Each structure stands twice: as C-alpha cells, then as structure tokens.
UniProtKB/TrEMBL annotation, chains A, B, C, D, E, F:
UniProt entry keywords in alphabetical sequence: Nucleotidyltransferase, RNA-binding, rRNA processing, Transferase, tRNA processing, tRNA-binding
Natural source organism: Desulforamulus profundi
Function comment: Phosphorolytic 3'-5' exoribonuclease that plays an important role in tRNA 3'-end maturation. Removes nucleotide residues following the 3'-CCA terminus of tRNAs; can also add nucleotides to the ends of RNA molecules by using nucleoside diphosphates as substrates, but this may not be physiologically important. Probably plays a role in initiation of 16S rRNA degradation (leading to ribosome degradation) during starvation.
Gene3D superfamilies referenced in this protein's UniProt entry, alphabetically: GHMP Kinase, N-terminal domain
Entries under InterPro entries matching the protein: ExoRNase_PH_dom1, ExoRNase_PH_dom2, ExoRNase_PH_dom2_sf, PNPase/RNase_PH_dom_sf, Ribosomal_Su5_D2-typ_SF, RNase_PH, RNase_PH_bac-type, RNase_PH_CS
Start and end residues of each Exoribonuclease phosphorolytic domain: 11-141, 158-224
UniProt lineage: Bacteria, Bacillati, Bacillota, Clostridia, Eubacteriales
Quaternary assembly: Homohexameric ring arranged as a trimer of dimers.
EC category name: transferase
Protein name: Ribonuclease PH
Entry's Gene Ontology molecular function annotations: 3'-5'-RNA exonuclease activity; tRNA binding; tRNA nucleotidyltransferase activity
Gene responsible for this protein: rph
SUPFAM superfamilies recorded: Ribonuclease PH domain 2-like (SSF55666), Ribosomal protein S5 domain 2-like (SSF54211)
Amino acid sequence: MERVDGRKPGQIRPVFMTPNYNKYAEGSVLIEVGDTRVICTATVEERVPPFLKGLGKGWVTAEYAMIPRATGTRTVRESAKGKLGGRTMEIQRLIGRALRSVVNLEALGERTVTLDCDVIQADGGTRTASITGAYVAMILALNKLVEQGMLEKIPVHDFIAATSVGIVRGTPVIDLCYAEDSAAEVDMNVVMTGTGRFVEVQGTGEEATFSRDEMNRLLDLATAGIQELNKVQRQVLGERISAGMGQV
Amino acid sequence: MERVDGRKPGQIRPVFMTPNYNKYAEGSVLIEVGDTRVICTATVEERVPPFLKGLGKGWVTAEYAMIPRATGTRTVRESAKGKLGGRTMEIQRLIGRALRSVVNLEALGERTVTLDCDVIQADGGTRTASITGAYVAMILALNKLVEQGMLEKIPVHDFIAATSVGIVRGTPVIDLCYAEDSAAEVDMNVVMTGTGRFVEVQGTGEEATFSRDEMNRLLDLATAGIQELNKVQRQVLGERISAGMGQV
Amino acid sequence: MERVDGRKPGQIRPVFMTPNYNKYAEGSVLIEVGDTRVICTATVEERVPPFLKGLGKGWVTAEYAMIPRATGTRTVRESAKGKLGGRTMEIQRLIGRALRSVVNLEALGERTVTLDCDVIQADGGTRTASITGAYVAMILALNKLVEQGMLEKIPVHDFIAATSVGIVRGTPVIDLCYAEDSAAEVDMNVVMTGTGRFVEVQGTGEEATFSRDEMNRLLDLATAGIQELNKVQRQVLGERISAGMGQV
Amino acid sequence: MERVDGRKPGQIRPVFMTPNYNKYAEGSVLIEVGDTRVICTATVEERVPPFLKGLGKGWVTAEYAMIPRATGTRTVRESAKGKLGGRTMEIQRLIGRALRSVVNLEALGERTVTLDCDVIQADGGTRTASITGAYVAMILALNKLVEQGMLEKIPVHDFIAATSVGIVRGTPVIDLCYAEDSAAEVDMNVVMTGTGRFVEVQGTGEEATFSRDEMNRLLDLATAGIQELNKVQRQVLGERISAGMGQV
Amino acid sequence: MERVDGRKPGQIRPVFMTPNYNKYAEGSVLIEVGDTRVICTATVEERVPPFLKGLGKGWVTAEYAMIPRATGTRTVRESAKGKLGGRTMEIQRLIGRALRSVVNLEALGERTVTLDCDVIQADGGTRTASITGAYVAMILALNKLVEQGMLEKIPVHDFIAATSVGIVRGTPVIDLCYAEDSAAEVDMNVVMTGTGRFVEVQGTGEEATFSRDEMNRLLDLATAGIQELNKVQRQVLGERISAGMGQV
Amino acid sequence: MERVDGRKPGQIRPVFMTPNYNKYAEGSVLIEVGDTRVICTATVEERVPPFLKGLGKGWVTAEYAMIPRATGTRTVRESAKGKLGGRTMEIQRLIGRALRSVVNLEALGERTVTLDCDVIQADGGTRTASITGAYVAMILALNKLVEQGMLEKIPVHDFIAATSVGIVRGTPVIDLCYAEDSAAEVDMNVVMTGTGRFVEVQGTGEEATFSRDEMNRLLDLATAGIQELNKVQRQVLGERISAGMGQV
C-alpha cells in the first residue's frame, strides 16, 4: 500500500519542537508533527482544585482547543456555542490523565500545572501531538521551579509521548494524517512511557471491528514510533534536564 | 487475592435483564449487573441527523445519565448544572459508536435509533452494562420494525457486549464493582462482538502504567467474560430473534 | 360516562409502593400509580442553603425529572437542552413546598433533605404521585436519623398525599390517566394532610372555566381519594413509624 | 385586625390604568395597584409557534420580568444570570393560560399575541396585576386589528381579572401588599371571568395548611374583588369595546 | 436640510427628568429625551467586587436593558435568550466607565453603586440618555448617604452628561432620533464633564468614513448640547446638591 | 519622558506580517507588533446571515479570542466559562465594522468573509493589531476569489489599519505596550483608511478626562502611525494586489 504522503507504514512524520515559544508561560513549546501544529503552554499556580485542598499534593490538568481555521472548513468556536463539545472534553481529560501518570503529585506540592494545548493547524493526530508537546512544556515549567529553588528536583520519573496508529485500507500504519484518519477502519491512540509501559490505549473500530492479531500489530507499530518521539523530546529538553527521566 | 464480594478474578457478577420494562419505548430492558441497574430504552424515529440527510442511511446514537442517588453520595443533576459533564459525553459517544459497529446503517434506512441508558443504581461498570443492555433494547426495537413490515430483517449481523477489566492490587480481575474500581491501578473497558472481534478497547492507568503482558492478560479475561454476556443476551432475545446475529 | 380504563369517577388507580428501592439513599420508594412509576429518593445532608445558615433550622427541597421515554414519544433531556423547563421548575417547587408544610424545620436541625423524584413511566399524575411517594421516602430517611440517635423523633406531625381531579367531558373524576388528562376541560391538583387540611389547591381551566359548584365537587373527590392514599402510606411505613403522624 | 395600610379585609387597593402608555406596541397599559406598577404591552405577530403551524388558529402567550429595583433590595437580572428562575416561568405560564381561557383562538387566526408584563415597582400582587393589565393591553391590540379590518370582531367573549387573597394573622384578606404577603399563612391567587367563573385557583399554605371553610371565605373575598377590577377594565376600555365581553 | 422632526442641526430634543420615580431605590430618575424614556435607579450596597476587596475604595457599575416593546418591533428578551448581547455589554461598560470618571472612589469607601438603566421606550440615543439620567440617580443616592451621615460630602467633583451626534445625509446634527440614527453615515457618542472635558468619544462610520474636519464639527455640536443637558441636571438636582459639582 | 522600551512618543513598534501562515484558510497572516502576536485567518463562505438573505450583497464579520497564556497570568477560556465576555464582543464588533467600511458588499456578492483573530501573545494593542492583520488576510482571501474567476476584482477601495494612542504620565504616545497601557490616563483606538479618513475613533478616559487639545494631539500621532502601517500592508500584499486600494 502506498501512503498518501509516501511514508512507509511504520514511519512517523517529521517532528519539530520550538521550546519557550511563548514569553509569558512558565513552560511552552510549539510542536509540529507534519502539518499538525499545536501551541502547548504550561501554567503553574500555587493552588489546587477543591477536592485536593489540604492533602499536600498537587494536580496536573489540561485544556484543548482549536482555532476555527485549524481545519479545512471553518469550525464554529466552542466559546460562541457556549459549551464544550464531547470530543474536546474527551481529549482534555486524556491529556491530563496521561501526564499525571508519571508525575509524583506529592512531590509537586500544593500546586496546579495547567497544560493548554491550542491547535493552530490540524492535519490528524492533534491529541497525540498535544500530549507529546505538553509533556515538554510541563517539564520546562517544572525545571523553572527547580531553578527558582521551589522544588528540589523535577518530580517526574519517566517520559510520556503519544501517537496514533490505525488500519487504513487493510494495512496497519502509524501517525495517520487527516486524509488517512478519515479513511481508517480502525483508529487507535497510544500513550506510552519512555520505559515502554502503556499509559492509555484507546482503540476504536467505528462501523468496523478488529481482531486480537490486528491489535498486536498496531501496538508494535506504536511502541516503535513512541521511542522515536521520546528521542526528540530528550533532544529538546537537553541531557541535563532529561537525566532524571530515565533512558529512552 | 480475595475479591471484595468473594468472586474469582475471572468471574463476572450475576446478570439479569428484564425485557420490555417500559411500556412506551419501541424496545427496552432493565439490566442488572450485580447491584448496577440501568434502564435502557430504544426509540425509533423516522428522521436522521442533518449530516445524514438524503444519504439513504440511518443512525444509531445514545444518551447516558444517572439519577442523583444512583451513587453513594448525591450527584448534582446535569440538567441543574446546565451542561453535560465530560464523563457523560465520553460514555454516550462510546455507547453509540459501539452499537453502530454491527448495524448495517444502509439497511436501517433513514431512521434514527436513540438508546437512552438511565442508571438508577451504580455499583461500577455502568458504561459497559449500558452497552450490553442497550444492544438488547435496540434489537427488540428493530425486531418490532420487522414485525410491522417496515424492515425485512434486523439489520444487525453480530452481538455486542461489554465489560470492564482491571488490575486491583496487582491482580487482573473482571467486572469491577465500585469498591474495586476506586482502588484499581489499571482500568480497561472492552467492547466485543459475539464473534470475538474488538470494537473498543480503552485501557487507562491513571497515576500508573501497565505492561504489554498485563494488557494481554486483561484482554484474555474480557474475551471470556463477554462470551458469557452474549449468552445471556441470546437467552433474553430468544433463538428466533438471535438467529441472524451468528453463533456466540 | 365510561372512563377509559373502566374506573368509576371517584376511583383512584391501584397504588403500590416498594420501600428501600435504592440501596444508597437514606430513604427511597418506588411508587406506582396505575402505569405511572416514580423513583423517589431522600438524601440527608448536614448543611443548609445559604439563606438559612446559622438560623438553627433545616430545609426540605425537591427535584423532579423524567427519563426520555417515560412518555409516549421521546422527550429531549433537560440536561441536553442545558436548562430546566418551566413545567419542571413548577413541579419541583410544588413538591418541596408541599412536604415542608408538615415538617418542623427547627426540630430537623441544620440539615437538608432533598427529595429526588425521577419518573420512569408517565401515565398522568406524575407530580401528585411524586408528592405521595416523596413523603414516604422522606419519612424513611428521617426515621433512619432517629435510629442513629441523631433525632429524638421524626419531626413531622401529619401525613401528606396528593392526587389530581378534573372535569372530563363534563364529569368530575379523580386520578386522571394520561388519556383523560389530555382531554380534560379542568385540571386540579390537590395536596392534603392526613387530617384533611389543604396544603395546595391548583385548579386550572386551560381554554375553559369552571364554576364554584364544579370546584366543590372536585374538592370532595380529592378529599376522599387522598384518604385512601394516606392509608397506603400508613401501611408501607408501618404502625410504629406512622404513630407520630396522627390518625388518617 | 388592623391592616398595615388601614384597609378593610375585603377592600382592594386603588387601581389606575393608563392605556396606550407605549407608542410602539399594538396595545399597552400601565397598571397601578397601590404601589405595584406594571407596564403591559401586547404585540401582534403574523405567525404562530411551531406546534400550531397550519392548524388555522392563533396563540396568546406572556412574558414577565421585574427591573432590578422593582424590589426593596436589588434583584439580580435574569439576563445576567443567564436563565429564567422558576418563579418567573410559573408566572408567565399562568398569565398566558389565564388570557387564553376567554380567547377564541380559531377566530384569532394564525397570529400570536405576546403580552409582556414588566414590573417597574413591586408591592405585592404583581402576577395578578399583570393579568388584569395584560387583559386590557390585549383587548386594545385586538381592537386595533378590528379597526384595520383584519378581524371582524374582537375574538374574546368575557373579561378576565385576577387578585390575591390570603390569611394574615388568622384573618382572610384581599389584595395583599408586600408587607402582608410576607407575613401570610395562606396565599391564594384567583383568576376569574366577568361572569364569575374560575379560570385559575392557586392556593398555597407554605409551612401551613388551611381548611375547607377558610378556602370558601377566601374565594368569597376574591369573587367580590374581581368584580370591582372588571369595572375598572370596562371603564378604561370604554363601552363600545367592552360591549362584546358581556356584562360584569 | 430639514430634520425629520423639524429641529435645527444643533438643537437637542426636549429633556424631562422625574426624580425619585421609584420608591425603593436609593436614587432614581425617569429621563425622557424626546420619545426615549429610561428608568434609572441607583442602588448602594456595602460591598465591593472581589478585585477591590480590602483596598478601601468603592466601585460604580451599570446595567442596561430594554423592555421588549421599547422598540418598533418586539425584541426578544436577553433573559429568554440566556445571554447578554454584545450591544448590551458595550453599553453597560460605557455607562459605568463614564460615571466613574468623576467619582472619587476612595472617598466613596468600600461601597458599590449600581446604576440600572431600563429603557421603556427607545427612540434613539438610549445609551446617552442612560448616562445623563444615571448621573442624576447616582447623585441622589450619594446625597442620601450624606444625609444619613455615612458620607461627609458627595464624592463627585463634576457633572457628566452625554449625547449623540452624527452625519445625516451630509449634515452634522445632534441628538439623533431613531429615524435619523438608522440613516446616519457617521454616528458618534460623546460623554463630557460640566467643565467641558471629554470622558468618552466613540465615533463610528459603519460602511462609511469621516474626515478630521467632520469630526471637529461633530465635537463642536456635542460640546454645546451637553452644556444644555448639564443645565437640566443642575435644575433637577437643585443648587444645594449641585454646588460641589462646579459651574456648568 | 522615557518610554518603557526606549521608543519615542510617536514611534510604533516593529511590525512583521507572515502571509499565508495557515494552509487551510482562504487568506491568513501572522501579525507581530512588538511582542503582540495575532493569527488572522479569513474564511470565505457562499452564504450570508439571515438578515441579508436574498439582498444580493455580502457580509464581513470577525471573531476574536486569546489563548489562555497570551497574557501574563492565565486567562480562563471563554469556552470553559460558557459565554463571551463584554470585552471580546466589543472587540469583534469593532473589527467587523472597521473592515466593512472599505468593502463594497454588493460587489462581494452573497458571500460571507469571516475574520478570525486569535491572539497567541498579548503585549498591548491586540485589537488594533487584529484589524491591521485581518485587513491583509481579507485581501488575500478576496484575491484568491479573483484568481479563481469568482470575482472580477477585489471589491475593496482603500486600506484599513489601526493603532492605539494614549496619554501616559502626561505625554501623548502611540502604540502602547501592555506596561504603558495599564498606566495610561487616556486610551484611544483609531482606525483609519489609507486616504487618511477616520473609520473609528474610540477615546476613553477611565477615571480621567481629556481636553480637546489633547484629543487633537492624539489624533495627529495616530494619523502618522497608521500611514506607516499602511506601508507595511502594501509591502506584504505586493504592488499588483495593492494597486486597487489607492495610494497610501
């Protein structure tokens, strides 16, 4: 099978990250995965949500949005509609959950890190690019706390990155662009750590189903691709900061 | 490991379904999975959502809600809050997607089947019980269309059922009750067909991660449990109606 | 005049109540009045609304909802619409007001009892069935407080029940089912105590009017019917609990 | 018992109506009942709500609001809160229902008359003053349709007016001002026609109850008071317009 | 050019103000500018918004609304739509800002003055009439605080009034009525102090533009007109109260 | 007076525009004015708002938003709050009005051009940068329609750009950065055409006032600065496209 952009089934798109893209946020990165572009900012606030008050631990949460022309046709703003759609809520819950899996919330202390993922161009894989980018923004923000003497070390013990895999016209492929995504029979988002453990696996066969064998082949592709993403993250963060996150 | 209610790791809770529980709906069932109870009704309407108008195919969608005291402490109504929460949206999107995977929407014609899943008591696994029950309510409603001569045959080619699996204190178990669910390190919802193919796999390690091996063990448990649920569905629907859905 | 279900003008429908229908609520009952079915749960919380803070008295309030297929055609959820309709607000204000009329709020102490009335099948008279059922759920919850030593006695001095009366094709009748209700010229909801005093009388002649004589005949019917409902309540609660509520 | 403003138990407050108070509305009146002041405007539109489309009949509906300082302390605007309160909905449903009871909707034709009742000063009895005033605004608007040749005659066959009655410190009184209303044990709103038939009776004993005897005395007071209100309406509308509404 | 109502280009419409129009508000006025009528009430509350807590200074804010038939065709209520429109927000922000420019917020103390401007008839210039009227209502309310000994003197050092100017069929005119406003090429709202300084200048050429010369002629007209409005304000407030506001 | 960033009173910040910044939008530009950065996209749709249906003319409208960390501290998303704030509405109305002033809506035909201005970094002057950038995005989109043969020529006859001016510690200055803006006594936004005519002048003295002289000096500064902005626009669009917009 020929992929629409000539890639091999197991080949991810080029990934670029511009750290400190925003001058106000405690941490920020512009992540580009092919033509998908997401601004990720990390905000640190010295407060926690009500359900954590007084428990001595922190919180990591995320919000996700797209500008109207991130997409091929204009998408109506959720602020204009007056409510968040189900897809948005699903994605922002996913991003927050994924990042929390490697953060030591007790060591973070009574602080909230909010990751804002604003998609300025969407060519497939925006939620996984958001996770991969938000991880870097979060580490940069936490490193600033270390530099300011507010934390002894970054309270994170592993890398987190994510990619999509799917079955397109019968072939399992990785990192689907929008054209592939709309044609896919099976769509799976995988979030993994740098040490190769799963954080989230969300496989969906809308109007289709998939076998255990197919699932295994998709997970193999994802595992390999995420290791490449971890390498880019390591490079962007630099060896000094990455040291505490283990080998990737 | 002793489970909180004495079950074995691979043992699902007792499942009962009361078909035609509601006198108005085209199809309905009260499903009880242990102490979890969900009223599932299927409504057939001779119209489709705007994005399908004139395409000659139908739609299957779902809504999900809990009464305030479905839970141990009272949950504020989403109607009073004025908006649906992220969890609700995630669940109702999941139920709709799961059921659509086995429905031939062209054969359904320009009709919408809406599955309403109202949880009246929640002891874990409400989303998977909703899928298992909604499937039965949908088949009953479609069978009524067949009896009324509006469809030649039920446009569904397989069974659909769902269960949760997870890792509780290190042990993979199936069909977690609320007490287990709150203590689980890994939580996975699996939707499968009667022929053993996956429709959805959603595995989550909130503040934890899981290995490929653990994932495989969870999928084994789910596969076996869902076959049992398919048998109960077959029994409730009867052989005549179930015939077209294949063996389970 | 023949009533649609063969009843006599002054005959109420069969009434069943299943106490403790819900395992989590402090008090609960499933009330069935003919084909009308309402789950009533009572939640006790150790707090009062802001306008009562520090006044040493409690509060009783109610919420009311219908599942979408409680009705002949599917009703859109108020949570999906994002706001409560006027009818819902009117009904839940009525239920709360009715119950408060026999509760000694000072004796209740700084607590709130919330009655949730969730209609799972609606065949007329859902608001009056909600009142009759919510009364029982409330008493069961308050009795639990007595058993736990948090109250010396149930702070309620009388029974409360409700029914509808109306004029259908010229004849005054009691406890209208949906078919009668839609055809009624005059519709009246009456809430009374066990000692025969009025709590609420809401008579409405939409696109019609009624004379003082007709009003009197309707009140006579309601008075007799509510006494029967009080007897069912007494039976469900048992003599020991009912003792403090006076004779009915 | 001395009433707070020296009135006798059966004495209503002075009533003034300024017809054509607004230069744009098809019909309008400023009604003053004591210190209660309501601007009532009637708008005629050549369309009906969706549920009446193509049925050849019209509709009469109402909306009700208060300016923030209509009340002793400032009330937050419902537009600022983003939703209508239960009290507002209850009142506007009541006004619409009351007026429809004497309108021949078929003779009105496919038109909607919207009555807007804006309370600019509230000293008790705002909902009943709204009904009494809205009736006059509606008749003025319908009369304009007759003058323009769009209707042959005003499609209304009777007067409608409303007042409140209640039990204050044991004494049944009519037309309660705010100070009386807040102290009342029983509160009843009565809407009647010019021919002495009831349209609505809403009696409420919040945290109190009332006997059949008390109810009868309240209805006697209301009947007499509403006849006086009908006379003022007749005077404001003039004999020519009032002719078709019967004697009062 | 002949103006629609025969006025000269620089002539404002007749202005009347009825002080203490409302019996509950701390200060109130009914302002009539031609057929435009606005009820302005001032509410004083002993609290400040969160962003001013503990800073020892007060706040002045405004809200603006129209009753549905203030306009030629009925305008849907913003409370029914569930949100404030952009025009409303723009206007109420403008009114608040305008009044704050002459109030010494430190001398006001930790109090909030809320100006409610409710338009009961709209014939152009409602926002400027609101400012001119709200100023008077505010001074009356502050004077009451002085009389009650809560303030030593009215903490306001100048008058504030506003008018509209615009270019209608090529001619600069002042105080546009609705018919002129809808036909204007350029529309400008000017808020000035009694000492002739600008507070706000908002000039707009929707689908048109204007030259520096035209702008100067509009500002000349506005300056003259606002002096007349100041005189009416001075007259309504009386010399004693007006004394501290400087000459006009 | 020394400006915070060393500029002279009449000196604007460096302005860069990256045309075609977004691959999906019909026209787009990233505009940078100092550290203020706004993504402007223009969407062309072959439909008009309801109030223009069938009138043979088009529409130009705008929306404005900021990502949460566009600002020094995180701003809550309006989509999460469920409604647009007054400031947002004011700004998006201003942008749309400003652009419409130079577009021939009849020549545009029954099309809507929507300008989305998404601020990704805010250092003062975001609304004026949005106008300046949105103008370029709009022209690029209209030029595409010309290239596709859907329009004969770009239906725009002049340039539009905007800047802020204000009085900071007594000195009139242009193009205020955030630090200056928060300290300004008077703040004025000016929108002008390339031929030096005003489109909008919005001058505000929050808690301050300004004289006619000061106003004149501010307008002089704005006029000069906007000519510079027009030159940058001309350069970005190129001579061929700019030809029809007149000299600047």
